[in-house]
Amino acid sequence: MNHISFRCEGCQARIKAPAQLHGQMRSCPRCGHRFIVAPRPVEDAGPALVFDAVPASRTAPQE
Ligand SMILES: [Zn+2]
Predict the structure, then answer these.
(1) For all residues of the chain together, what is the average pLDDT?
(2) Distance in Å, CA 45 to ligand 1 centroid
(3) Which residues place a Cβ less than 5 A from the ion ligand 1?
(4) Å from CA of 15 to ligand 1 middle
């Protein structure tokens, strides 16, 4: 299963989200900053936060 890694513009937290969330508006689970999920390079190490919220319409992820 592919994931998108990027960094929160609000708290600089490193966030990893399922690729299926690409283009969706989400709130940072750490600081609440709202952003659109999009792949961006992450240069530095930091807290890794993972979205586990999957739309109810989806079936179980293939892992
Ligand atoms: Zn944040």
Answers:
(1) 79
(2) 15
(3) 8, 10-11, 13, 28, 30-31, 33
(4) 9
pTM across the whole model = 0.54
Q: Which residues 6+ apart lie within 8 Å of 3 measured at CB? A: 16, 17, 18, 19, 50
Distance (Å) from CA 13 to ligand 1 centroid: 6
Summarize pLDDT for 17-35 with one digit per residue, the tens.
Answer: 898 998 899 999 999 999 8
Instruction: Name the burial class of residue 15, with classes exposed (0-12), middle (13-18) and buried (19+) by CB atoms within 10 angstroms of its CB.
Output: buried
